Amino acid sequence: MTSIFIRKIFIHPLIRSSNPPSSAPHLPPRLRTYTTTPQPPPPSTTPPPTLKGWRKYAWQFRNKPASYVASFAILHELTAVLPIPLVYLFLDRTGVRIPIPEDAIAEGNRIVSKMRVRYGYEPLDPQNRVMVNLATSYAVVKVLMPARIALSVALTPLFAERLVGPVTKLFRRMVGRPASS
């Protein structure tokens, strides 16, 4: 029973020893063998011809992650900043009125007017809806965030290949060129 237990200990891969203890002289010493795992082949830069749909873009992202991340970040910020003035102009030109109590508008304009006077600008009229339209524009852009993210993800490959890639190549050529005398 004891020799079977000792034999199992020395055969177990996690508790393997090159020499058994001296209390078990009848067990032969085990030779330790070392093996290495084969290294995977280097990744290919040419995509397999069967990639279609989003897998094609995933392969392109794998080869140029910096361009794709930069493209997504630029597109995400553009879709956040550009709609604010557009929504504001829409609200201002069409006269769409967000239902907010007039006393809340007057109080908000009073606070904003104090700040404007402090920095040398003219105060706002108590019934002016500029701040309401600005806040509404900001809120609309925030509500549209899922659509903005989807649009940014959809346009990232095109933006990376058509704008970021060529600009990067141009920059590398300009920096890599020796200074002219």
Automatic annotation (TrEMBL):
One of its GO terms (cellular component) is mitochondrion. It comes from the Eukaryota. Residues 38-50 have a biased composition (Pro residues). Residues 19-51 are annotated as: Disordered. It holds the Pfam family FLILHELTA. This is Uncharacterized protein.
